[in-house]
Q: What sequence folds into this?
């Protein structure tokens, strides 16, 4: 019988726990609200223990968190507005409570990227970028099949993109004001236009400007990393027609130097399931 | 006796050939002008053959050139203003003329990066960016010790950076006008200010603006890749005081979100030798 692998997706508001097999197929899952570390992870452990002996665990987590396994503080949350989680170490917690367990951790968007590469919108590819546009703007990057980790925060949201000439909005980022996230996230859209993204009609000027910013950020990734595929997901990305607008701007910015980049842009295929599947794949490789 | 490795550095105007050992130490080298592919590479082969049997060859080349070894056209020059080299395949040439030779190719700046990581300004590090600022602006990136190759052109020069508010210069890039290279290269400096970089005095306004652009490009790499070290080389980078100006702007752009990034910026240590040493290291690993 194949080993059962545990998976955990820690989100800002909801948590998903699951069990799956080594091939990365989910067997069973359970969703509940994220509260304090002890309570949230206690529920997760009770759920796993009632079903299987856990030897391997993959985690897809909100950040900022140390994801470089060579560092002593691997799996520790850093400065985050979620006070209860700041400084909390996932690896320490699970090593104490699940004796001998092997733990592998990535960010939520990195996990989603791994899942899309395993069975979704980037099947069989090695150089892929996944950007998620919602409450924040974040990215995961695989180069030659390996997640890029760097020292911390290779998440792209705080890139400074060129401002749209008609945009006088000051920006929504508490650190940089008008970085990529500060100009293109859901909260930025809402603050700039006075209505949340899902209430802005398809032909509203908001979407031309949003496409401009998204294309600029994705173009920067192309100039720096030259990925084969660009996956754009997250709530804001689902606005009707937005993908096509961004793709056509990417073609313009390629300017005959790069081959037309627009065709590299796709939507994710796994939807809500990507994070927990990615966590399971991490666990299977731990 | 240790095997002798061949190394070739192909530059736009000059070519360097060398022999070295498996540890990457140069034994002998020879420099001559780059002309046509057949003449240039013929001189290289004659020089090697007169000295040793060649089984492994590392190449640091100008671009654009295919550097993904999994592709059929690995080692082939793409659209380049150097007509005689366009479409020419280095791998095909050497496989035909140096029977059984193993060839490994990287761009000139990637080779310089490998050399600096082996024995220079990034000794022992795994996540490093090397940017060169001269006739063009180019970069090489290592993530977890592996060169990032992507599909093509992960060289950063065509990044679109935010324009300096006082800069009305249209830009020098024939494709994008005011991309990073179009605003910050040596020719851009000369066209904007009416004098070549080495004639612009240290306290000329040119250098504040140049530092602004260089810091923006390097900041983008930090936001996307989070490298441990940023090496800035190339002729323009050697202007007195420029490194310090760029480092201090990097601290400003970190904005308390990233730890102050300025201290990650260093100058290369290997100077002119970096390219050929990197080529030798590539050959030793081929």
A:
């Amino acid at each position: 019988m194949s080993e059962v692998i545990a998976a955990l997706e820690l989100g800002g508001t909801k948590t998903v726990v699951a069990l799956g097999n080594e091939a990365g197929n989910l067997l069973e899952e359970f969703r509940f609200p994220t509260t304090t570390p002890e309570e949230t992870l206690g529920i997760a452990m009770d759920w796993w223990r009632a079903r299987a002996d856990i030897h391997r665990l993959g985690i897809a987590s909100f950040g900022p968190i140390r994801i470089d396994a060579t560092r002593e503080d691997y799996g520790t949350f850093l400065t985050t507005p979620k006070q209860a989680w700041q400084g909390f170490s996932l690896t320490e917690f699970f090593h104490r409570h699940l004796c001998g367990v092997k733990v592998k951790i990535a960010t939520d968007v990195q996990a989603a990227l791994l899942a899309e590469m395993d069975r979704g919108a980037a099947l069989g590819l090695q150089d892929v970028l996944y950007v998620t546009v919602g409450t924040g703007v974040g990215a995961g990057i695989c180069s030659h099949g390996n997640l890029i980790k760097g020292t911390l925060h290779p998440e792209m949201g705080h890139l400074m993109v060129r401002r749209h000439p008609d945009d006088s909005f000051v920006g929504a980022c508490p650190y940089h004001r008008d970085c990529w996230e500060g100009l293109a996230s859901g909260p930025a859209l809402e603050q700039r236009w006075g209505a949340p993204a899902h209430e802005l009609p398809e032909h509203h000027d908001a979407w031309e400007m949003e496409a401009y910013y998204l294309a600029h950020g994705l173009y920067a990734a192309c100039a720096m990393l030259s990925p084969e595929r660009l996956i754009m997901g997250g709530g804001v990305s689902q606005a009707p027609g937005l993908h096509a607008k961004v793709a056509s701007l990417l073609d313009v910015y390629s300017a005959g130097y790069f081959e037309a980049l627009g065709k590299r842009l796709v939507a994710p295929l796994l939807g809500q399931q990507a994070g927990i599947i990615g966590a399971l794949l991490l666990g299977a490789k731990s």
Observations:
- The domain at 123-268 of chain B is CATH 3.30.420.40 (Nucleotidyltransferase; domain 5).
- Residues 220 and 284 of chain B are 33 Å apart (CA to CA).
- The two ends of chain B are 19 Å apart (CA to CA).
